[in-house]
């Protein structure tokens, strides 16, 4: 089998309050996304969001059509966002070829029937991190380079959250139905992301942490602002953030993470901010 597909039920705040460490990890953490010559997919019932990882080494891998989607093909009623966190990749979408370098993004629109993924160099394989959300309108597929991203610099070294936000697949850069993706890079000496924290009842989110140095880790914070929980995470792991939950993290070193979200609107600034001193 070239792929795995797992479903995760949506969880209420009341349920999450009762979870111990192992239960939190089982419901929200995606511990292994990249397996050589395989594809891994996790469907969250929060906004029916799919998170996945593709690691083509010896051969090209074709986007499957999991029976759980009850579709003629994967993107019949979905759109797809991809960010490459490995070596150079080649992606072919309905005959159109895209070369994707490290930290470049690709949007593939609803209605695309055939998609294949391969690495330019098996010794330095591509690692394709993907997010997918339901879609109801076909938009053209589009590659987005680092230079084409909308870039925002926030925070400061004094508060250990000096970071650069690269908005790659957002509506100011590329047309999408509801999917948004971007990448936040923390400066040396900074460890906090998304602080002050926020929630957004109109959207769910997934965080993918990478460029975490060997021997280091991330403490990801989740839960209602007055009822927080934490999940310790390693390099190249992802975590589901429900719409009612904060999503913030602190590392034992600086790192990079990819955020992806979908829901009711495309307003990046639609957030319900939480004062740091109000967190519990």
Blueprint (SSEs and pairs):
Blueprint: E1 3-8, H1 13-17, H2 21-28, E2 29-30, E3 39-44, E4 49-54, E5 61-62, E6 78-84, E7 89-93, E8 96-100, E9 105-108, E10 115-119, E11 128-134, E12 142-144, E13 150-154, E14 163-169, E15 180-186, E16 192-193, E17 198-199, E18 203-210, E19 218-224, E20 227-233, E21 237-241, E22 248-251, E23 256-263, E24 272-273
Parallel strand pairs: 1-3
Antiparallel strand pairs: 2-21, 3-4, 4-11, 5-10, 6-9, 6-11, 7-8, 7-10, 9-12, 13-14, 14-15, 15-23, 16-22, 17-24, 18-21, 18-23, 19-20, 19-22
Structure report:
The protein is mainly β and 280 residues long. It has one domain (11-278): Sandwich (Jelly Rolls). Helices cover 5% and strands 44% of the residues. It is built from two helices and 24 strands. The protein has a seven-stranded mixed beta sheet with strand order 1-3-4-11-6-9-12, with no helix packed on it. Strand 3 and strand 4 (49-54) form a beta hairpin. The longest helix has 8 residues, at 21-28. The protein is globular and about 55 Å long. The protein starts with a strand and ends in a 7-residue tail after the last strand. The model has no long low-confidence stretch (mean pLDDT 97).
Q: Give the overall form.
A: globular
Mean pLDDT: 97
Terminus-to-terminus distance: 44 Å
Q: What's the story with the biggest beta sheet?
A: 7 strands, mixed
List the domain count as a whole number: 1
Proportion in helices: under 10%
Please work out how many helical segments DSSP would assign.
2
- Identify the CATH architecture: Sandwich
CATH class: Mainly Beta
């Amino acid at each position: 089998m070239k792929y795995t597909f797992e479903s995760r039920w949506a969880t209420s705040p009341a349920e999450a309050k009762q979870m111990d460490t192992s239960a939190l990890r089982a419901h929200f953490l995606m511990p292994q996304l990249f397996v050589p010559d395989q594809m891994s997919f996790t469907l969250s019932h929060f906004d029916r969001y799919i998170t996945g990882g593709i690691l083509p080494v010896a051969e090209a891998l074709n986007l499957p059509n999991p029976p759980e989607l009850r579709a003629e093909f994967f993107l019949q009623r979905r759109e797809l966002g991809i960010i490459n966190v490995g070596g150079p990749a080649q992606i072919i979408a309905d005959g159109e070829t895209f070369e994707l370098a490290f930290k470049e993004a690709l949007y593939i629109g609803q209605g695309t029937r055939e998609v294949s993924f391969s690495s330019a160099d098996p010794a330095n394989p591509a690692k394709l991190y993907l997010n997918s959300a339901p879609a109801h309108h076909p938009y053209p597929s589009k590659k987005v380079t680092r230079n084409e991203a909308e870039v925002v610099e926030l925070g400061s070294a004094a508060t250990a959250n000096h970071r650069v936000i690269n908005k790659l697949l957002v509506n100011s850069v590329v047309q999408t139905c509801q999917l948004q993706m971007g990448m936040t890079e923390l400066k040396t000496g900074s460890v906090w992301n998304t602080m002050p924290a926020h929630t957004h009842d109109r959207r769910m989110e997934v965080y993918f942490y990478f460029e975490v140095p060997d021997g280091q880790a991330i403490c990801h914070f989740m839960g209602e602002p007055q009822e927080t929980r934490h999940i310790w995470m390693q390099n190249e792991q992802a975590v589901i953030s429900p719409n009612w939950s904060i999503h913030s993290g602190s590392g034992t070193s600086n790192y990079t993470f990819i955020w992806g979200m979908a829901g009711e609107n495309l307003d990046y600034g639609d957030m319900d901010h939480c004062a740091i001193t109000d967190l519990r």
